[in-house]
Amino acid sequence: MANWAGCAVRREASVDSTNRAARRWAAQGAPHGAAVVALAQTAGRGRLGRHWESPAGAGLYLSLVLRPGPQSPVWPSLTFRAALAAADACQAACGLRPAIKWPNDLVLSGRKISGILLEREGDAAVCGIGINVRQRAGDFPPELRGRAGSLEALSGRSVSLDALERALLASLEARMDAPGWKADYTAQCVTLGRTVRVLAPDGAFDGFAEGLDDVGALLVRDEAGQVRRVLAGDVSVRSPEGYV
Ligand code: BTN
């Protein structure tokens, strides 16, 4: 069971975005470990300005306020620790362990089942996690069909949202407090050791994902043989053939 993660929880039937709600709360002094959980989001937000589909009761939509302290060395790894925690929780809930697509998408059977949006609010971070739980293939909008999946559809097991939330809070706490993240992350990251296409605002390039540096930047050897350091902020990484 979690100790500090979920020490205060705000539950909403519907909210614009749990990240926005958690940021508003953080700005008013929400403590380390405060969480916002919603049954539905009307304007769920993803990375790179994308939308996150959030129909009522179909997924877990949770945002956690983190206050690691200004000097904490944990800041650069928050997003990677969150990905490991979400994978732990999915495994606990459905018996299957998702892989991680750098930086923080969770993938089961080649389909994205979870995404993470980490944002800064003053001296706090807000870690927003969305996990698809009940959607059937036809529930996703056409542009996501074939790329998105849900825990229940892919595992064939029924998943309790409450149990998934408890598992996620416990794993977030454990992963945030753990001494390291890189060895576990490297072992679970499907992007490494593959040819990737990096889509950045200033252009795209193909290369081979050789590894990660100590802050989690992806080290990609491009076709000219030069190693380029790719930061998660504004890039999308995929295989030249498709999503994973
Ligand atoms: C992504 O893969 O693009 C990240 C998706 C993050 C979605 C979650 S759902 C809970 C929290 N609230 C939001 O508005 N976004 C995150």
Automatic annotation (TrEMBL):
Q: Which residues form a coiled coil?
A: none
Nucleotide-binding among the record's keywords? yes
| One of the record's GO molecular function terms | biotin--[biotin carboxyl-carrier protein] ligase activity
The protein's UniProt keywords, in alphabetical order, are: ATP-binding, Biotin, Ligase, Nucleotide-binding
Q: Which GO terms describe its biological process?
A: protein lipoylation
A GO CC annotation recorded here is: cytoplasm
Q: Which Gene3D superfamilies match?
A: 2.30.30.100, Bira Bifunctional Protein, Domain 2
Instruction: State the EC number(s).
Output: 6.3.4.15
* PROSITE patterns linked: BPL_LPL_CATALYTIC (PS51733)
Domain (BPL/LPL catalytic): residue spans on this chain: 8-180
Q: Which InterPro entries match?
A: aa-tRNA-synth_II/BPL/LPL (IPR045864), Biotin_CoA_COase_ligase (IPR004408), BPL_C (IPR003142), BPL_LPL_catalytic (IPR004143), Transcriptional_repressor_C (IPR008988)
NCBIfam families given for it? birA_ligase
Protein name in the entry: biotin--[biotin carboxyl-carrier protein] ligase
Species assigned in the record = Candidatus Avichristensenella intestinipullorum
